[in-house]
Design a protein that fits this description.
By secondary structure, this protein is α+β, with helices and mostly antiparallel strands. The chain folds into 3 domains: 241 residues, P-loop containing nucleotide triphosphate hydrolases (Rossmann fold, 3-Layer(aba) Sandwich), CATH 3.40.50.300; 104 residues, 3-Layer(aba) Sandwich (Rossmann fold), CATH 3.40.50; 138 residues, Peptide chain release factor 3, domain III (Alpha-Beta Plaits). The protein is 25% helix and 31% strand. The strands form 8 sheets. The protein has an 8-stranded antiparallel sheet with strand order 28-25-27-26-30-31-29-32. Its main location: cytoplasm.
């Protein structure tokens, strides 16, 4: 009998405390025994999930890591997603691989722009969300104001499951509303040390707040939560260890096990006997000494066994998976078997790509992992012309991972890279230097955006590409791409060529 699975992600605005919460969840799950206090710019020991050089320098997560741990007979697969606003595309793809999410909100700031953006991504796939209001040991906004903002801005029913007794300098603990138990701050650091009071005398103000909350907000409904209509709200402090155990217990008790996944010709249920999965991320050079490439696969159905043959939708040629990996950030162990909801790493040399379906029997294709039209385009300038071959390999590698997109113009020799956010450009240059030993620069391209073009009739597409050859390029798969100077130009050209389709996304 396999242990139940909970595959979830943590989403937040930068600096809401996501990385610290990740560490404390790993401590609570027994995966690590010491949580390093993470400070901005990476001054102290970095979180175990942040390992790329640029992450260590800047104190932010720019890749998605997977951490698997067990607690009380349940296997938790935690996908740590980039919190920076420039990484919405990579985050989107990671959120396709989870069954639920934890939304972290700063008690002083409430709903911030990136939080809302990531929430909308979850809503697209009806991913149920547990909310964790963090940093209640510091000065924050009134509890009712925070709860009403979540309800109003996200159009969600909210159900407080715990309640902070004061905030900031008046913080006296967190009460579990169902039982009345209070976690109290202890010691010089005023952290939670596992001591719970049951006979706590509350102030009239707190008593009145809790009574009003009971009247004003709906009671918890597991079905409404799993449908994405209601969010249970927990209050706490990841840094001081308040509310972390309540949160992990909530994931165990309420978060859904592996769900059916959208696919063609029909959704795939986790109960189906044949092994299926999809690649949602490819990461090169997790171990720079070995120049490795790992494809992250979400297992959707069947029982995977080490050594079995699976057929990727991209190549159609079966591959034997001899060394599947389970992850703890950079640490790995060989997986002899895996079950629906698990994330396994498959070492490969460019045969697997983001969006690929892997299946025991061909004919299944998972959907909903698109490429997005880039919002920033730059020309790549190579400082050492003898390293052209290395540059092409590096750009293809990173395009395969989804860090950037690369376009090869029909006219001219300068390759163009496209990204969704500015920080991806820094990641590109940092990795070119650190991993590929290629010194390169970027300059503004004469284009502002890109669209994939297609037509029902080949002659219509050829006529368009012949006339607009100076603005045409190919992506790394050879698909035709129209490069436009402005978004206005896209609309203008689309009106002139009604038989040509201009797509801002391309299904992988």
């Amino acid at each position: 009998m396999t242990s139940p699975r909970r595959t979830f992600a943590i989403i937040s605005h930068p600096d809401a405390g996501k990385t610290t919460l990740t560490e404390k969840l790993l401590v609570a799950g027994g995966a690590i025994h010491l949580a390093g206090e993470v400070k901005a710019r990476g001054q102290n020991r970095r979180a175990r999930s942040d390992w790329m050089k640029i992450e260590q320098q800047r104190g932010i997560s720019v890749t998605s890591s997977v951490m698997t741990f067990e607690r009380d007979g349940i296997t938790f697969n935690l996908l740590d997603t980039p919190g920076h606003e420039d990484f919405s595309e990579d985050t989107y793809r990671t959120l396709t691989a989870v069954d639920s999410a934890v939304m972290v909100i700063d008690a002083a700031k409430g709903i911030e722009p990136q939080t809302r953006k990531l929430f909308e991504v979850c809503r697209l796939r009806s991913v149920p969300i547990i909310t964790f209001v963090n940093k209640v040991d510091r000065e924050g906004r009134p509890v009712f104001e925070l709860l009403d903002e979540i309800a109003d801005m996200l159009a969600l029913d909210v159900c407080p499951m715990s309640w902070p007794i004061g905030m900031g300098g008046e913080f006296e603990g967190v009460m579990e509303l169902a039982t009345g138990k209070v976690s109290r701050p202890e010691g010089d650091s005023r952290t939670f040390q596992g001591k719970i009071d049951t006979g706590v005398t509350l102030s009239d103000k707190i008593t009145e707040e809790i009574e009003l909350a009971g009247i004003g907000y709906p009671t918890f409904d597991a079905e409404a939560y799993r449908n994405g209509d209601l969010t249970p709200v927990y209050f706490g402090s990841a840094l001081k260890d308040f509310g972390v155990t309540d949160l992990i217990d909530a994931l165990a008790d309420y978060a859904p096990p592996p769900r059916p996944q959208p696919a063609e010709p029909a959704p795939v249920s986790p109960d189906e006997p044949d092994v299926t999965g999809f690649i949602f991320k490819v990461q090169a050079n997790m171990d720079p000494n070995h120049r490795d490439r790992i494809a992250f696969m979400r297992l959707c159905s069947g029982t995977f066994k080490r050594g079995m043959k699976l057929t990727p939708s991209g190549s159609g040629k079966p591959i034997a998976v001899h060394s599947p990996i389970l992850f703890f950030a950079q640490n790995r162990e060989i997986a002899d078997e895996a079950f629906p909801g698990d994330i396994i790493g498959i070492p490969n040399h460019g045969t697997l790509r983001v969006g690929d379906t892997l299946a025991e029997k061909p004919g299944v294709r998972f959907t909903g992992l698109p490429n997005f039209a880039p919002e920033i385009l730059r020309r790549v300038i190579l400082k050492d012309p003898t390293k052209t071959k290395q540059l092409r390999k590096a750009l293809d590698d990173m395009a395969e991972e989804g860090v950037t997109q690369v376009f090869y113009p029909e006219i001219g020799s300068n390759w163009i890279i496209g990204v969704v956010g500015q920080l991806q450009l820094e990641v590109l240059l940092s990795r070119l230097d650190a991993e590929y030993k290629v010194a390169a620069g970027l300059e503004h391209a004469p284009f502002d955006t890109a669209r994939w073009v297609s037509a029902d009739e080949a002659a219509d597409l050829k006529a368009f590409t012949d006339i607009n050859r100076a603005a045409m390029a190919k992506d790394r798969d050879g698909n035709p791409v129209f490069l436009a100077k402005t978004a206005w130009e896209v609309g203008y050209v689309a009106d002139r060529y009604p038989k040509v389709k201009f797509a801002a996304t391309r299904e992988r």
